[in-house]
Amino acid sequence: MIAKVKAGTEVNPSDAKLSMAYIYVAFTAFLIGAIAGVVQGLQRAGFIDLPAGINYYQVLTAHGLLLALVFTTYFIFAFLNAGMSKTLGAFPDKYRKTGWIGFLVLTLGTVLTTIMVLLNEGTVLYTFYAPLQAHPLFYLGLTLFVVGTWVAGGALLAHYFNWKRENPGQLTPLFGFMTVATILLWIVATIGVAATVLLQLLPWSLGISERVNVLLSRTLFWYFGHPLVYFWLLPAYMAWYIVIPKIIGGRLFSDSLARLAFILFLLLSIPVGFHHQLMEAGISPFWKYIQTVLTFAVVVPSLLTAFSIFATFEITGRAKGATGLFSWWKKLPWNDVRFFAPFIAMLTFIPAGAGGIINASHQMNAVVHNTLWVVGHFHLTVGTTVLLTFFGISYWLIPVLTGRRLTPSVNRLGMIQTILWAVGMFFMSGAMHLLGLLGAPRRTAFTTYQDHPTALQWLEGMFANQATMSIGGVILFIAALLMIYNVIQLAFLAPKEQTEFPIGEVSSDASKTPPLLENWKLWVALAVALILVAYTVPLMDMIQNAPPGSPPFRPW
Amino acid sequence: MHLHRYEKYWLYFGIGTLIVFLSVLGVGAFAMGQYPPSHDAVVDPLNVSETPPFDDPGLVQIDDQTYVANIVAMTFGYRPNVIEVPAGATVIFEVTSEDVIHSFTIPGTNVNMMVTPGHVNQARHTFTEPGSYLVLCNEYCGAGHHYMQMTIEVIEQ
C-alpha cells in the first residue's frame, strides 16, 4: 500500500477545496448521466417505454453531455488543479481566486445547459448540429461553459509560467509541463466551437441572423470535436506517465520522451477534424486525405506512450528481482485498484485505438460511419480507457484531498467495480461494434423499420443483438452505482489519515531533457501553422461556394 | 535526444505500418478513384421542391445499365420512398435535404453519406443481388428520426 505521510499536507488545503468542488459536480453529473444511459439502453433494445412523454433523444442528449462533457471536464480540472498545487506549490491567492471564478462560470453554464436539456428545449444531442435549433439559453450555457474553462485553465497556466519565471534555467516539473500542453490544446481547440456558437448559432437562435451556413458550423464544431477527445485522454496519459510508476514502486522511463509525446499531441490532434466529415459533400477528397494523414500521425505519440509504460513495468519488475522473459509481470501490484483500474484502461486502449484507425480511414469510414460501431468505439476510448483511469485516480486523489485513506474494503470494492465495468463494456461495446458492421445506426430509438429483414437481424443475433447491448448497459450501471458508493466512502466516511499524492521520479539513467522541449512559443506557432495549412483553403471554399444558408428547425 | 534501441525498432515498425496504410488509402483514392462522397453541387434548401431535378424526384435511366436516382430527404422520410431497379443495374444516387441534416445509408453496401441542406451528395452502387434493400437515416433529425426509411426493390430481369 501507499506510503503514509507524517506531517503537513500533500495539497494545500485551500487548493484542495477547489479540487473537491470539481469532484462533487463531476460525480453528481456521472450519476445522472449513468441513469440516463441505462434508461436509454433499455429503450433501445425495446425492453421499456419511456414514461411521462420523455423523449428518447432528450435522454440521449443528457447522457452524452453529462458524461462526455461535464464529468470529464470537471474531473480533469480537479486532477490538474491538485497536481499543480502538489508539484509547483500552493497557488498564489490571485490565481486561486481566478480558479474559483472559472469554476463558478463553468458551473453556471453547466446548470443552464442541463436545465434546457431537461426541459426538452435543447434536444439537439451533444453535437448540436445546425439547422436543428435549441433555445438561446442552451447556447448561452455552452458559451459560459467554454469561457469558464478558459478562466480556470488561465489560472493553471499563470501558476506554471510564474514558477518558470521564479526558477530560471530549471526544468519545469513534468506534471506542470503536461498540464500546460493539455490546457493549450483545449484553448486552441475551443476557439472553433466558440466561433460557431458565438458568431453563428447564438445570433441565429436569437433571430438576429436568418440563415446559418451549415457546413461551416459542422466544420468549426469538428475542429474542436476531435481535439476534445485528446483533452480527455491527455490527463489519463499524465496519470500513466507520472502516477503509475510511483504506485508500482518504480521510476518513469524517460522524461524527455514523455514531453515529446505531449508536444506531438498538441501539434497533431487539432488539424484533423475532417475525419469526422469524410462522408459529406462540400469538402474535396484531397483535403479529407490530408487530414487523414495528420490523424494517423497521432499514432506516433501513442506508440511512444505504450513503449514507455510497458518499459516502466518491465524495469520495475526486474528491479524487484524478476528474472526470465515475462516473470516481471507477476511483480506488478495486481491487488491495488490504483494500478488495476488504469491497467485495464490501458489494455482497452489497444482495440480502441485500432478501431480509431478504421474510423479515420479515408474511404473505409463508409462502412462504419454513424453506425453503432462508432458508439462502441467511443465507449471503449472515453467510456473505458479514460473513465477507468479517472476512477483509478479517484481512489487516491479523493483521500489526498479530504485527508482520508483508501481502506482495504473500498480497495476490494474498487477491484470488483473495475471488473464489472470491463465485463459490462465487453458485452455492450462488443455488440455495438458488430451491430455497426451489420449497418445498425447510432443515435436511434427502438425501431424495426416496419419489420424490414435487415433491421430484424439486429434483434436476432447470438451476440450481435441489441439485447446484448442493453444487458451490458445494466452491468455498467451497477458498476456506476458501486463507484458512487466508493466516492462517498472516500469523501466523507473513510478514517482520517494523510495519504500521499503519488508523483513518480525519473529513472536515474535517463538522459537529460533538451531545453527545446520547453519552448512553448515554438510549439504553439507550429500548431497554428499546421492548422492554417489544414483548414485555410477548405474554409475559404466553404464560405465562397456556400449554398444559401438554412433557417431554423425544431422537429422534436 | 537519446532513444533506446528497442524503442527505435518499435517506432520504425509503427511508422512503417502507417506509411503502408496511408499508401493503400491514397492509391485507392487518387489512382483508382475510390473517393468518399464529396460532391460539390449546391441548391437552395428552401426551394428544393421547385429546383430540377428535385421538383420531380425519382429514377432516371441514362444508359443500358445505369440510372440516376434523384432523392429528397426530409423529416422524416425520403421522396420517393420506394424505387425499383433491375438486378445488375448501377445506380448513381443524388440526394439533398429540404430541412435538417439527414443521411442516406444502405446497410450492407458502401452507400453511406451525409445529406446536409444546401448540398447535393452523390454515391453509386451496383445492385447484383435481387431483393429489398433498406435505406435508413443514421443522422439524428428529430423526434421521428427512427421512422425515416425507404426501400430499393431490386428485381430479377
Automatic annotation (TrEMBL), chain A:
Family annotation (Pfam families): COX1
Compartmental location: Membrane
Major site of localization recorded for this protein: membrane
CDD domains: ba3-like_Oxidase_I
Domain of life, per lineage: Bacteria
InterPro entries: Ba3-like_Oxidase_I, Cyt_c_oxase-like_su1_dom, Cyt_c_oxase-like_su1_sf, Cyt_C_Oxase_1, Cyt_c_Oxase_su1_BS
Regions annotated as coiled coil: none
PROSITE patterns tied to this protein: COX1, COX1_CUB
Transmembrane segments: 21-39, 59-80, 100-119, 139-162, 174-201, 221-244, 256-274, 294-316, 337-358, 378-398, 419-440, 467-488, 522-540
Membrane topology listed for this record: Multi-pass membrane protein
Occurrences of domain Cytochrome oxidase subunit I profile (ranges): 17-541
Alphabetical UniProt keywords: Electron transport, Heme, Iron, Membrane, Metal-binding, Respiratory chain, Transmembrane, Transmembrane helix, Transport
SUPFAM superfamilies for the chain: Cytochrome c oxidase subunit I-like
Family (UniProt): Belongs to the heme-copper respiratory oxidase family.
Record-given protein name: Cytochrome c oxidase subunit 1
Origin species: Caldalkalibacillus uzonensis
Higher taxonomy: Bacteria, Bacillati, Bacillota, Bacilli, Bacillales
Automatic annotation (TrEMBL), chain B:
Keywords assigned by UniProt, alphabetized: Copper, Membrane, Metal-binding, Transmembrane, Transmembrane helix
Boundaries of every Cytochrome oxidase subunit II copper A binding domain copy: 64-157
Highest taxon above the source species: Bacteria
Principal subcellular localization: other
Gene3D superfamilies found in the cross-reference section: Cupredoxins - blue copper proteins
Spans traversing the lipid bilayer: 9-32
Reactions it catalyzes: 4 Fe(II)-[cytochrome c] + O2 + 8 H(+)(in) = 4 Fe(III)-[cytochrome c] + 2 H2O + 4 H(+)(out)
Cell compartments where the protein resides: Cell envelope
Keyword set includes Membrane: yes
Role noted for this protein: Subunits I and II form the functional core of the enzyme complex. Electrons originating in cytochrome c are transferred via heme a and Cu(A) to the binuclear center formed by heme a3 and Cu(B).
PANTHER family according to UniProt: CYTOCHROME C OXIDASE SUBUNIT II (PTHR42838), NITROUS-OXIDE REDUCTASE (PTHR42838:SF2)
Protein known as: Cytochrome aa3 subunit 2
Source species: Caldalkalibacillus uzonensis
Native organism taxonomy: Bacteria, Bacillati, Bacillota, Bacilli, Bacillales
